[in-house]
Design goal:
alpha/beta, 3-stranded antiparallel sheet, single chain
Length: 318
């Protein structure tokens, strides 16, 4: 089952974003994973302003009393996040400060528990293995799936699916019904890369057609830049990331097709730390009930992804 950054194996994790990037030199696209970036032309820009201030959230003494002693003693929740995934998590206009709805949710959780919150930028694929020794929480648009549930605890907090984008007006006449031989950009480790594109590519080769030129890049911002510059035919990512990209690229991109494979995303906690997972779930429930959670998502234009019930380790697809 194809699901969105939101779903993936723990060795292959995440999807895409939109942040400020400059004009860059273009290199040839291949099927191999690349770390290069796009070439000349306008680049996407990220807005770091939201309408809700999570510091207005008040401490809940009963929930704060449930915080594990090791975290309570240090007074800080350390959060690992791949800050290249606007509007969920990305760097603000200073290029250093993490912002986004995931960051605000983390801060609201911390405020409720009477803890400071330190969001640390990390590579997406390195967050889950570092839970416990390095990070208390992983908040980085992780789709909940069976493999991840086998490795960590996950507390549901958002819904997202997969969608696509092309240049405005679709000048290359790209169609989801004819992806063979096309160049498609995707963030490394996302479910859009595998299983979605990998499965589509297997079908192309099985039918004797040209393989997809899958351009995998570490940062979604680089994927978006390449699409803006026309060096790839299309890109695929989680629905909130594509939606944000459309608003941040000055009308240079447009959505293609409908959202599919919607699935819950989760806040990740070390497998051994069930107490922390429980208190995070209870805290999210309070934020949902008092309206703070919805206000955060509304402030980032993503209220459509809101959930009404947070769970620890909910049932997940493959």
């Amino acid at each position: 089952m194809q699901i969105s950054r939101t779903l993936l194996s723990s060795s292959k994790l995440k999807a895409a974003t939109v942040l400020a990037v400059g004009a860059l030199a273009l290199s040839a696209c291949t099927n191999a994973s690349e770390t290069g970036t796009g070439g000349g032309g306008a680049a996407p820009s990220g807005s770091s302003k939201a309408s809700f201030d999570p510091t207005t959230v008040k401490k809940d003494d009963s929930l704060a009393a449930m915080v594990p002693a090791a975290i309570k003693s240090k007074g800080t929740l350390t959060v690992g996040s791949d800050t290249s995934y606007a509007p969920a998590e990305f760097l603000g206009t200073d290029g250093q400060t993490p912002v986004g709805y995931d960051v605000d949710i983390a801060k609201a959780i911390g405020a409720t528990l009477g803890l400071k919150v330190q969001v640390q930028t990390a590579e997406f694929t390195g967050i889950l293995p570092a839970l416990g020794p390095k990070y208390d929480l992983g908040i980085s648009s992780f789709t909940i799936n069976k493999e991840r549930l086998g490795a960590v605890n996950m507390v549901s907090y958002f819904n997202a699916g997969t969608t696509w984008a092309v240049q405005k007006g679709n000048p290359k006449k790209f169609s989801l019904d004819d992806v063979c031989g096309k160049s498609i950009g995707v963030q490394t480790g996302t479910v859009q890369e595998d299983p979605d594109l990998s499965d589509r590519n297997k079908k192309c080769t099985a039918e004797g057609k040209k393989p997809i030129d899958i351009v995998t890049l570490k940062n979604q911002t680089d994927v978006t830049t390449r699409l803006v510059n026309g060096s790839i035919d299309a890109m695929t990512a989680d629905s909130p990331i594509i939606g944000y990209a459309l608003t941040q690229t000055n009308g240079q991109l447009e959505k293609l097709g409908d959202v599919y494979d919607a699935a819950p995303q989760g806040i990740a906690v070390a497998k051994s730390d069930t107490a922390l997972a429980d208190v995070v779930q209870k805290t999210l429930t309070k934020l949902i009930e008092d309206g703070s959670y919805k206000k955060i998502l509304e402030g980032w234009g993503n209220a459509e992804g809101a959930i009404t019930n947070s769970e620890v380790n909910p049932a997940a697809g493959s």
